[in-house]
Known about the structure:
Blueprint (H helix, E strand, L loop, with lengths): L52 E5 L5 H14 L1 H4 L10 H8 L5 E8 L2 E13 L4 E6 L3 E2 L8 H16 L3 E4 L2 H9 L26
Parallel strand pairs: 4-6
Antiparallel strand pairs: 1-2, 2-3, 3-4, 3-5
Helix pairs in contact: 4-5
Amino acid sequence: xxxxxxxxxxxxxxxxxxxxxxxxxxxxxxxxxxxxxxxxxxxxxxxxxxxxxxxxxxxxxxxxxxxxxxxxxxxxxxxxxxxxxxxxxxxxxxxxxxxxxxxxxxxxxxxxxxxxxxxxxxxxxxxxxxxxxxxxxxxxxxxxxxxxxxxxxxxxxxxxxxxxxxxxxxxxxxxxxxxxxxxxxxxxxxxxxxxxxxxxxxxxxxxxxx
Length: 210
């Protein structure tokens, strides 16, 4: 669950700016606040390999486009995703986590000359050992004709920007494309590959009951 937002007038995902900022806590107890209004990159984007490429935060109007991209993404990785179970039949939870406070997820669309070519999404995370928030980037998805053309790097750049603005300790991702995108950003020393084993227990499985 994401930390409470400082009473935003509107989410940055909806494209509305606001000047409200969280009240600072004492330095010893301060917890970085994830303000969804900071999820949109404010600075000019760095040059990218593909002409006409832009990345922007999703809005409610993009819901069907995002769902279609997620479906394509899931189809591409169907075998790998089987242990996680089928997607929900409706988009209620997706809409809540993206557009209703407290915001727990953020997503960005990559477009080339106005045509959507991919997306990336991230969720709020927390590490008890580091006592700090992190941003967990899901595997970016880019449509076939646009792979290896700088789109992944542009999506990663926006996720990194959001993590910095949220005050997160780090950005985490388990995607091979993330590592490749980091190399395209010339940041190999900051993107460290960490091997891990992840066990997934589906809630409808008998083994998940306690």
